[in-house]
Design goal:
There is one protein chain. The protein has 12 helices and 15 strands. With 385 residues, the chain is of the alpha/beta class. It folds into 3 domains: 93 residues, Chorismate Mutase Domain, subunit A, CATH 1.20.59.10; 182 residues, D-Maltodextrin-Binding Protein, domain 2 (3-Layer(aba) Sandwich), CATH 3.40.190.10; 81 residues, 2-Layer Sandwich (Alpha-Beta Plaits), CATH 3.30.70. The strands form 3 sheets. Strands 1, 2, 3, 4, 5 and 11 form a 6-stranded mixed sheet that branches. The protein has a 5-stranded mixed sheet with strand order 8-7-9-6-10. The chain has a 4-stranded antiparallel sheet with strand order 13-14-12-15, with helices on both faces. Helix 4 links the parallel strand 1 and strand 2. Helix 1 packs across helix 3, helix 2 runs antiparallel to helix 3 and helix 11 packs antiparallel against helix 12. The chain binds the ligand C=C(O[C@@H]1C=C(C(=O)O)C=C[C@H]1O)C(=O)O.
C-alpha cells in the first residue's frame, strides 16, 4: 500500500469521525428537549425500559451490520450515561437557578493533571458556565476557601475502590460549615512516571500522595527496598520526580505528559477497577428534584448504650429507606466515642426521610444532615448480548 492510499483512507476515517460527532451533538440537543417534557409532566428523568428497548434494537441492528454486541452495547451505554447525566444536571439547574452562576470558582487538591482536576472537569463539563480552578495543598484549605467565600465549590475525594474511605475527609466533615451538593466518580489509572530514559531498575525513590501509595501497595512491595516519600498532592510528587535523579512519581499518564515525565510502568493499582468517588461541597445546600436518583448524607452520634446503633438503623428500615454507606469514625478528643456517617438512597424532601430524621433524634445524641444531592453512580441497564 502506498502512502497516498493510506492518507486517503485516513481522510475517510476523519470524515466519518467528524460526522459521528455532529450526530452525537444533535442527539444530545434532542435529549435536552426531552427534559422540558419531563419537567412539564413531572416524569422521572431516567426511563430504564426505554433504554433497554433501545439497546436491544441497536444490538440486533449492529449484528446485521457485522458489529458485535459487546462493542455496540459499550458505545451506547456511554452515550446513554451522558444523556441521562446531562438531563439530570439541566433539571437541577432549573430547580436551583442561583446555584450555578456564569462562573464557578472550584477548589481541589493539587493542580494540573491531578485526579481531582480530572474529576472536577468531568463534573463541571455537564454544567454550563466558566470554570475558575483554585488548587489547594490540603483538604482543610479546600473547605476553608468554600467557607470564607473564596470558592463556590470544593471537590474532596471521599472513597476509593482499592484503599477504601478517606478518613481525613470524613473527619473534616464533622466540623466544616459546608453542604454536600454533588458527587462524581472518576477512574484512577496509576502509572509510575519518571524523566525520559529512566529505567525501573535505576529507581531509588518514589514520590506520591498517601492515597496512591495505599492503592498501589502490592506493586510497591514487589519493588523491594525503595525509599517512599509522601507528598501533599500528586502535583508536588510530579515536581519532585522531575527534580530528583533516579526517582519516580505515581500519577496518571496525562499528568506525567503535562510536565514531561514518561510512563515507565502502568496499571499499578491493587485492583484493576480503581475508581475514586469525590464529593462536591458548597456553602449552601441545594434542592434536589424528585425526578432524579438522590442521595442524602448524614452524620450521627448514637447514645452510649447497648443496641443504640441497631435502634438507629431500624428507623431507616421501618421507613423503607435504603442505606448505601455506613462508616464509623472516632470523635476527636473523646477517645472510644464514635460518630457514624450514613448515605441514604433518598431525597431529604421525601416525607419518609423527614419522619425518619425526627425519630432518629430519640436514638441518637445528635444528627446533622451533610447534604442531599444528585446521585451520579448510574447503574447501567443490563441487556442480553
Ligand atoms: C432521552 C430520554 O431520557 C433518558 C435518556 C435516553 C436516551 O438518551 O436515549 C433514554 C431514556 C432515558 O433514560 C428519553 O426518555 O427518551
Amino acid at each position: 500500500m502506498t502512502n497516498d492510499v493510506l492518507n486517503a483512507l485516513r481522510h475517510d476515517i476523519n470524515e466519518i469521525d467528524s460526522d459521528l460527532l455532529v450526530l452525537l451533538a444533535k442527539r444530545r440537543r434532542i435529549s435536552h428537549g426531552v427534559v422540558e417534557y419531563k419537567i412539564a409532566n413531572n416524569k422521572p428523568i431516567r426511563d430504564e425500559a426505554r433504554e433497554l428497548a433501545l439497546l436491544e434494537k441497536l444490538i440486533g441492528y449492529g449484528k446485521s451490520l457485522g458489529l458485535d454486541a459487546y462493542y455496540v452495547n459499550n458505545v451506547f451505554q456511554t452515550i446513554l450515561e451522558d444523556s441521562v447525566l446531562h438531563q439530570q444536571a439541566m433539571l437541577q439547574k432549573n430547580l436551583n437557578p442561583d446555584a450555578l452562576s456564569e462562573t464557578h470558582r472550584v477548589t481541589y487538591l493539587g493542580g494540573q493533571g491531578t485526579y481531582s482536576q480530572l474529576a472536577c472537569h468531568k463534573y463541571f463539563s455537564r454544567r454550563p458556565g466558566k470554570l475558575i480552578e483554585i488548587g489547594c495543598s490540603s483538604f482543610d484549605e479546600i473547605t476553608g476557601k468554600v467557607e470564607n467565600g473564596q470558592a463556590d465549590f470544593g471537590l474532596l475525594p471521599i472513597e476509593n475502590t482499592s484503599s477504601g474511605s478517606i478518613n481525613e475527609v470524613f473527619d473534616l466533615l464533622q466540623h466544616a460549615q459546608v453542604s454536600i451538593v454533588g458527587e462524581v466518580t472518576h477512574s484512577v489509572e496509576h502509572c509510575l512516571l519518571a524523566t525520559p530514559d529512566t529505567e525501573l531498575s535505576q529507581l531509588t525513590k518514589i514520590y506520591a500522595h498517601p492515597q496512591p501509595f495505599a492503592q498501589c501497595s502490592r506493586f510497591l512491595q514487589g519493588l523491594g527496598d525503595l525509599q517512599h516519600e509522601t507528598c501533599d498532592s500528586t502535583s508536588s510528587a510530579l515536581q519532585s520526580a522531575l527534580n530528583t535523579p533516579n526517582s519516580a512519581a505515581i500519577g496518571s499518564a496525562q499528568a506525567g505528559k503535562n510536565v514531561g515525565l514518561e510512563v515507565i510502568k502502568s496499571n499499578l493499582a491493587n485492583q484493576s477497577e480503581n475508581h475514586s468517588r469525590f464529593i462536591v461541597v458548597a456553602r449552601k445546600p441545594l434542592q434536589v428534584s424528585k425526578q432524579i436518583p438522590t442521595k442524602t448524607s448524614l452524620i450521627m452520634a448514637t447514645k452510649q448504650q447497648a443496641g443504640s446503633l441497631a435502634d438507629a438503623l431500624m428507623v431507616f428500615k421501618q421507613h423503607q429507606i435504603n442505606l448505601v454507606k455506613l462508616e464509623s469514625r472516632p470523635v476527636p478528643g473523646n477517645p472510644w466515642e464514635e460518630v457514624f456517617y450514613v448515605d441514604l438512597e433518598a431525597n431529604l424532601a421525601d416525607n419518609q426521610v423527614k419522619h425518619a430524621l425526627e425519630e432518629l433524634k430519640e436514638h441518637t445524641q445528635y444528627v446533622r444532615v451533610l447534604g442531599c444531592y444528585q446521585s451520579e453512580s448510574l447503574q447501567a441497564v443490563s441487556v442480553n448480548t
